[in-house]
Amino acid sequence: MRVSKALIAHASDVLSDALRFSGPADQAMSRHFRNHRELGQQDRAFIAEAVFAALRRRRSLALAAGSESPYSLILAALVRLQGQSVRGLADSVREKDLPLLERAKAARIEDQPPAVQADLPNWLWEKLVTQYGAEEAQAIAQGLLTSAPMDLRVNFVKRSREEALAGLQASALDCHATPYSPAGVRLAGKPAINKHPLFLDGSVEVQDEGSQLLAALVAPKRGEMVVDFCAGGGGKTLALGAIMRNTGRLYAFDVSAKRLAGLDPRLARSGLSNVHPIAIANENDLRAKRLAGKIDRVLVDAPCSGFGTLRRNPELKWRFGEEDVAELVAKQARILAAAARLSRIGGRLVFATCSILREEGEEIAAGFVASHAGYRQVSCAEIFKAQNIALDTGVNLRLFPHRHHTDGFFAAAFERHS
Q: Which stretch of DSSP H or E encloses residue 206?
């Protein structure tokens, strides 16, 4: 498509808003589109692609352009990542911007330090190298620079995966079953799935395969009492409810009533009646404490850096610093300890984060076992094997985009024995 000055200006404005880090980049995008309803679907797709490309590659683009301004980052993204030529953009930019385009196009990022090539802050790159080694750190970083696929979770209360696949394919959508999650469907491209009849009737929900696997780790049985301790918008809550086939009692706790409110329309579509959303003041809320020792399965998808979701939320690597991660780690340990009180003897507790950092994963799990003698860790691989899920990353679940084509996740499962 022909790139106009207006489209470049729109993309620059959205990027400028996103770089204020007052919220997720997709919220800045949605806000801009609401204020500019004259933009067509193709225009919006161009803006979104340019903005997210600039956020993913912000560091190398700034170096190539010789400027960190949102406008310069967008121009550099167009010629380096979006396949635009300098000549093709000549009529869409100011004459004084042509040297910037030429410089950005010619820049050799492969001659730059590894952190620049990985488009990560120095501290984060160095941490990955320390934790995984330089070669694996590079593979992790490159995986996080790719575009994430659109995954769906089939709601088994409504229909089987085979039925959902047939319905989607009948609509000329290119899709296939995900390799690990028994409820997953992966779509080619980014179709407007929210307008599809199967989405509107609650038969499918948009959910990364990695998130679906967390629900499979909890593996709730029909009729059980289950708590999703950090439910957020309720994606995993709905997955748990579907596995339970709408039986038992499923509590969705979160400290944000606003986030929980986002569950309401999804819950209505899902057909689930066993879900009970409850906004709590903190992890020690009395309404949670009343359930101490009574719950069969507890999921703690704890607040984290979100670095495992950089394909979808690239602004997070520029938004969070090392000190922010340290604060999150302390919060994760507190939340997990509070949630552990809910489990009955023989009950299962699953801790998860969408992070690639070991301090938000393996170190939390090890610290929990060391300080909670009544719990023992159980193998995630064995839990999956019992469900015929062919995925073995060891005792802990550790997912990466470059290996599993999911978001980056960590999970550990525990059983209370005393």
A: strand 204-206
pLDDT score recorded for residue 2: 81
What's the pLDDT at 359? 98
Q: Is 95 left (phi over 0), alpha (psi -120 to 50) or beta?
A: alpha
Q: Which residues contact 174 (CB under 8 A, 6 or more apart)?
A: 187, 188, 189
290-325 residue pLDDT tens: 999 999 999 999 999 999 999 999 999 999 999 999
> How far apart, in Å, are the Cα atoms of 54 and each of 51, 75, 149, 168, 341?
5, 9, 19, 32, 44
| Distances from the Cα of 51 to the Cα of 58, 193, 218, 240, 315, angstroms | 10, 22, 36, 34, 10
Residues tagged active-site = 354
Distance between CA 399 and CA 415 in Å, rounded?
22
Q: Quick one: tokens of 273?
A: 């009646």
pLDDT tens readout for residues 168-197: 999 999 999 999 999 999 999 989 999 999
**Residue pair 138/119 in contact by the 8 Å Cβ criterion:** no
| Nearest C-alpha neighbor of 76 from the set 91, 52, 60 | 60
Q: Which 3 state secondary structure label does DSSP give 142? A: helix
The CATH superfamily label for domain 209-416 reads Vaccinia Virus protein VP39 (3.40.50.150)
Alpha helices in 107-160 (DSSP H): 114-117, 122-132, 134-144
Which two three-digit tokens encode residue 186? 């992966």
Low-confidence ranges of the chain (pLDDT < 70): 1
The dihedral region occupied by 208, where left means phi > 0, alpha psi between -120 and 50, and beta the remainder, is: beta
| Domain spans of the chain, in order of start | 5-112, 114-145, 150-206, 209-416
- pLDDT value at position 251? 98
3-class DSSP state of 293:
coil
**pLDDT tens digit string along 377-398?**
999 999 999 999 999 999 999 9
Residue 401: predicted pLDDT: 97
CATH class given for the domain over 150-206? alpha beta
Q: Are 247 and 274 in contact (CB under 8 A)?
A: yes
- Beta bridge pairs of residue 223: none
SS3 2: coil
